[in-house]
Each structure stands twice: as structure tokens, then as C-alpha cells.
């Protein structure tokens, strides 16, 4: 059967099976199904861990999920455990915040002044090539084993990530868009509002998400080397005592801290980009006086 234009008409029986297949496939890809599958994978891994620990895997090295749960409960109900968590959280927050500020400032300065960027960028790259853990003994000698040595080590990773994202973002800013805003009568604050900030928003928040785990890594590495408290200190002590259960309990705390930090940064990312999307609808000429 054909229409007046000569196009064949598909029968209902030919379209229905494909529609059913698509609907059944989308039903298996829903958010609740994905969460259930992830939980099932985690549960299967825990069961295998519990069963294989001892007969197959050395229990002193991997412990058991039940022993890890007991160790985690002791960690979260003891004053020393919360002291370690508080110390590490403060060091991570301070190192991450200072690193973001320092990296953003360096990126803005070197990106805004091309000559300074060409002179100093190779030096920054050379310093970034030094393994951060190799600088830990130097910072420990300078700041001691207190919190400031950990904060200094923690800020290096986020600072370099933020610097390169901001620096390259400024260099890749569209010159044509800048000229269009200037031709329309836009001033310096218009360029900042309608060109620079929207251009740097995505690189900035990408650097935040990348720098968060780097700050945690720096703090834990510094606490491993020399510290009297902190989660890294607890992990090192547990490893020396061959206490795998307490070791895994500390790792679980670190994973939770990382997830909380990433969730906060993701929320800030969505909030900022939504605000920028709304403000970008306004034209530069609307603000002229």
C-alpha cells in the first residue's frame, strides 16, 4: 500500500517489535536498575572476599569484610579515630583551598601578560615535573611535622592543575569574540563578564574536580612520612602492625571523604554553570551607561 506521494506505508506489525525492543532496552538502563546492578556487584565482591579470605587469600593481608566492619566501627566510635579524621580533613581543605587560589592567580597573571607567560611557564613546568613526594622531606624540614607541612604538600597538586587550566583557557580565548564585544561598545568589565568568565568556567571546575583527589593524596603521603595523627598516620601504623582490617577501615574513610568532596564540587559546578547560562542571555549593551 502506498500514499498519494508514492511513499510506502509501514505496517503496524513491522513497527511494533522495534518499539517493544527499544522500550525493553531502556527499561534495563533506568537509574534504579543501574543502582541495583552496582549494589549487586559490590555485594558479590564482598561475598567472594569473605569466602576466599583464608582458604585462598592470606587473611593477614586482606582480612575479611566482617573484621573490616568491626575495625571501622571501632574507628568511628573512638576519640582518636575522629581526631585523625578531623586532622586530615582540615589539612585537605586548607591545602586544596590555598592551592586553588594560588594556581588560579598564577594562571590569570601569566595568561594576561604574554611575555611573563613565555618566560615563566617553562620554569613552572620544570618544577611541576618534580615528584611531589620527593618534596615532602624538604617541607618537613622547613615546617616541621605539624599541619603546615601537610598543607604545603597538599596544595602543590591542585595549584598546578588549576594553573594550567586557567593559563591555557586564557590563551585559547576567542579573539574574534573579544573584538565583537569591543565593537559593540563593551568595556573591560563586559569582557570579563561575557568572555573571560564563561570561557574559564569549564576549565576552572574541571581543575577543581581533578585537584581534590590530588590534595588528599598529598596529605596522606605526607602523613605517611612523618606525623603523629591523621588518617595517613593510622594507615602507616596499621601496615606496620600487619593489621589489615584497620587498614581497610581507614581506606573506606578516605573513599567517603573523596566522594563527599567530589559531590560538593559537582554541585558547585552545576550551580555556577546554571547561573552563568542565565546571565549570558543578557547583551553587553544592556549594561552600558
Walk me through what this model shows.
- The chain is mostly helical and 289 residues long.
- The protein has helices at 12-27, 31-52, 59-62, 65-77, 79-112, 114-128, 132-143, 147-171, 175-183, 188-225, 231-240, 244-279.
- Helix content is 81%, strand content 0%.
- Helix 7 crosses helix 8 and helix 11 runs antiparallel to helix 12.
- The model is unreliable at 278-289 (pLDDT under 50).
Radius of gyration: 27 Å
- Secondary-structure content class: mainly alpha
User: What is the C-level CATH assignment of the largest domain?
Assistant: Mainly Alpha
Number of DSSP E strands: 0
Helix content: over 70%
Shape: globular
Give the SSE order as H and E letters.
HHHHHHHHHHHH
- What is the mean pLDDT? 79
CATH superfamily of the largest domain: MetI-like
CATH architecture of the largest domain: Orthogonal Bundle
- Count of DSSP-assigned helices: 12
The CATH topology of the largest domain comes to MetI-like fold
Percentage of β-strand residues: under 5%
Quick summary of this structure?
The protein has 289 residues and is mostly helical.
List the helices and strands and how they pair.
Blueprint: H1 12-27, H2 31-52, H3 59-62, H4 65-77, H5 79-112, H6 114-128, H7 132-143, H8 147-171, H9 175-183, H10 188-225, H11 231-240, H12 244-279
Question: What tags apply to this protein structure?
Answer:
single chain; 289 residues; mainly alpha; MetI-like fold; globular; disordered C terminus
Amino acid at each position: 500500500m502506498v500514499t498519494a506521494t508514492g511513499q510506502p506505508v509501514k505496517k503496524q506489525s513491522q513497527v511494533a517489535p522495534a518499539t517493544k525492543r527499544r522500550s525493553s532496552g531502556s527499561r534495563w538502563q533506568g537509574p534504579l536498575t543501574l543502582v541495583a546492578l552496582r549494589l549487586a556487584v559490590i555485594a558479590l565482591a564482598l561475598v567472594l572476599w569473605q569466602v576466599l579470605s583464608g582458604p585462598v587469600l592470606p587473611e593477614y593481608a586482606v582480612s575479611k569484610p566482617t573484621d573490616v566492619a568491626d575495625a571501622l566501627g571501632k574507628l568511628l566510635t573512638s576519640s582518636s579515630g575522629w581526631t585523625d579524621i578531623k586532622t586530615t580533613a582540615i589539612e585537605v581543605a586548607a591545602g586544596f583551598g590555598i592551592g586553588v587560589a594560588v594556581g588560579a592567580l598564577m594562571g590569570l597573571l601569566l595568561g594576561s601578560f604574554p611575555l611573563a607567560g613565555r618566560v615563566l611557564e617553562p620554569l613552572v613546568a620544570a618544577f611541576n615535573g618534580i615528584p611531589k613526594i620527593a618534596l615532602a622531606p624538604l617541607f618537613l624540614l622547613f615546617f616541621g611535622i605539624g599541619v603546615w607541612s601537610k598543607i604545603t604538600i597538599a596544595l602543590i597538586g591542585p595549584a598546578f592543575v588549576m594553573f594550567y587550566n586557567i593559563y591555557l583557557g586564557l590563551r585559547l580565548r576567542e579573539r574574534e569574540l573579544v573584538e565583537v564585544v569591543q565593537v559593540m561598545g563593551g568595556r573591560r568589565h563586559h569582557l570579563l563578564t561575557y568572555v573571560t568568565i564563561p570561557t574559564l568556567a569549564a576549565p576552572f571546575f574541571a581543575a577543581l574536580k581533578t585537584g581534590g583527589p590530588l590534595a588528599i593524596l598529598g596529605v596522606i603521603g605526607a602523613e605517611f612520612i612523618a606525623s603523629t595523627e591523621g588518617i595517613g598516620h593510622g594507615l602507616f601504623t596499621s601496615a606496620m602492625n600487619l593489621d589489615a582490617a584497620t587498614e581497610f577501615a581507614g581506606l573506606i574513610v578516605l573513599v567517603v571523604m573523596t566522594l563527599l568532596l567530589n559531590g560538593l564540587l559537582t554541585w558547585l559546578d552545576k550551580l555556577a554553570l546554571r547561573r552563568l547560562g542565565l546571565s549570558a542571555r543578557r547583551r553587553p549593551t544592556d549594561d552600558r551607561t
